Amino acid sequence: MTLPRRFLLASATTFAALIALAGPAFAHADATAKAAAAGRTDITISIEHGCNGNAVTGVRVSLPAGATAVTGSNADGWTSTVSATEISWSGGSIAATASGDFDFSLVLAQPAGETVTIPTIQTCTNNTEIAWIQAPSSDHSESSHPAPQFVVPANSTSASTSTTAAAVTSGPSTTARMATQSNAVTDEGSEASTAGRYVFIGVCAVIVIGAGALFLKYRKKPTNN
Fold first, then answer.
1. Dist. CA 156–CA 36, nearest whole Å
2. DSSP codes, 42-107
3. By 3-state DSSP, what share of the chain in percent is helix, strand and coil, each rounded to 5?
4. Quick check: 125 and 54 in contact, CB under 8 A?
5. Exposure pattern of 100-111 as b/e (b: 16+ CB <10 Å)?
6. Over the stretch 71-109, which tens digit does the pLDDT of each residue have?
7. Hey, is 40 helix, strand or coil?
8. What span, in angstroms and rounded, lies between the C-alpha atoms of 21 and 23?
9. What DSSP designation does 160 have?
10. Which residues contact 179 (CB under 8 A, 6 or more apart)?
11. What is the pTM of this model?
12. 40: buried, middle or exposed (CB in 10 Å: 19+, 13-18, 0-12)?
């Protein structure tokens, strides 16, 4: 195999490895909303991956202010629980490299067209978690752990509705923990993710330096006529 082909093959392999390493770091937890009957709104929270190789075992979502008639969808072994401040799921499991959707329905107090932020925390095995609770940056740059947002769809609010508020379970308040923060600190975010970024940058630097050194070493020297 010639040197150029070797170099191209090594570069392609390295690029694929970098994409695999970078994938989880750039994934998000997303929220989508659609209008339903009787002034209700159906929300889907999409979790894209586990916590640094650990399977997802729980999800907590902060409810929008004034939300009523909250009901969760229970599927694939998950059980939803509604409190005064959040809806959570437990009992199921999603592989670390897989994604999963969590659905719930509610009556919103916010008008159509308003952007609603719902801080979300996913818990995983080995006491790891990712808190998607960072507020949008003032300079519109990308947050490392942005809180999911959705725009209230038309016909999602109604002056009168036949639905009644769902029963809530008692328990300790988690409002402070789930509040949107400008600089979220989590088990995953403060330890694993930060370390992962440094490792990623270091790997990139080593590869670039190594590729340059190999190129200089093996490039053909110009012949003298």
1. 7
2. EEEEEE---BTTB-EEEEEEEPPTT-EEEEE---TT-EEEE-SSEEEEEEEEE-TT--EEEEEEEE
3. 30, 30, 40
4. yes
5. bebbbbbbbebe
6. 999 999 999 999 999 999 999 999 999 999 999 999 999
7. coil
8. 6
9. S
10. 62, 119, 133
11. 0.66
12. buried
Q: Render pLDDT for 179-197 as a digit per residue (tens, 0 to 9).
A: 665 444 444 443 334 344 4
Partners of residue 41 on adjacent β-strands: 35, 106
CB contact at 8 A, 168 and 83: yes
pLDDT confidence bin for 155, thresholds 50/70/90: confident
Contact 140, 152 (CB under 8 A): no
**Could you confirm whether domain 28-184 is CATH 2.60.40.2230?**
yes
